[in-house]
Amino acid sequence: MSDQLGALQEAVATLTAENAALKAENEALKDEIARLKGLPPRPKFKLRPSGMPTNAVLRADPIIVTVADACATQRAEEDRPVLRLSAETRYAAKSWKHERRVVARIEARTMGMDIRTVVTSLTAPGPENLYEVYYCARGNAENLIKLHKSQLSSDRTSCRSANANQMRLILHTAAYWLMWRVQQAIRKKAALATAEFATMRVRLLKIAARVIETSTRIRVAFASACPDADLFRTIANALKPAPHSRRGGAAEHSNPVRKTCKPVDPPR
Description:
Elements: H1 2-36, E1 50-52, H2 56-59, H3 62-78, E2 82-91, E3 100-109, E4 112-120, H4 127-151, H5 162-185, H6 197-205, E5 210-213, E6 218-221, H7 229-239
Antiparallel strand pairs: 1-4, 2-3, 3-4, 5-6
């Protein structure tokens, strides 16, 4: 059984290398087509870290294996649910001309080991800083684009006029900023602090309430069994404008209506 598993892993590694070679050949053909059309060539290197699947060679790397064993042992000794460590090694696929820097994020859990690798040409930051700051920030940016496109439907630009499509995109972007601002106003320990926009729309927007509007304020009355009433109060307090201060530094009265007014002479 172990021999069959090893043969299968070697076959997967071979197919992965062949796929990388085909991608490189495809990129070379794109460069040739761009050259024939008189277009500028694409850059030949990447400055940002890029994730890559962990293959059999990286899983058997002695540096990664040593750190993974130490991570699992330390997690068990300290009885932690999760423990994360980082490692750094050098790796070269068959289609690469030279070795490249590979950073491994090793995470030991109660359910097992999770290892993710990142290949990069950056040399300055350490492995943990590179993964947490650079690579995870790139992933967060992609998640925000996904929220803008899929959950706010910003890809619905089917108008015949380009100006109309641009206007629709501006409206979708305004909705994105409103949802993002509401999300930032939620406390970090709250249940919806890391929720996606679709969940926030169902929990915070599509909800029944009674709105009472007067000349001085707007009151929103929720049902007595509303589970997010306290969250609404927290968001409202976080989003309300700061009071303006007078010359002496005291805050103005919250009521925008003036108590006195100067009499006006009737027209003659």
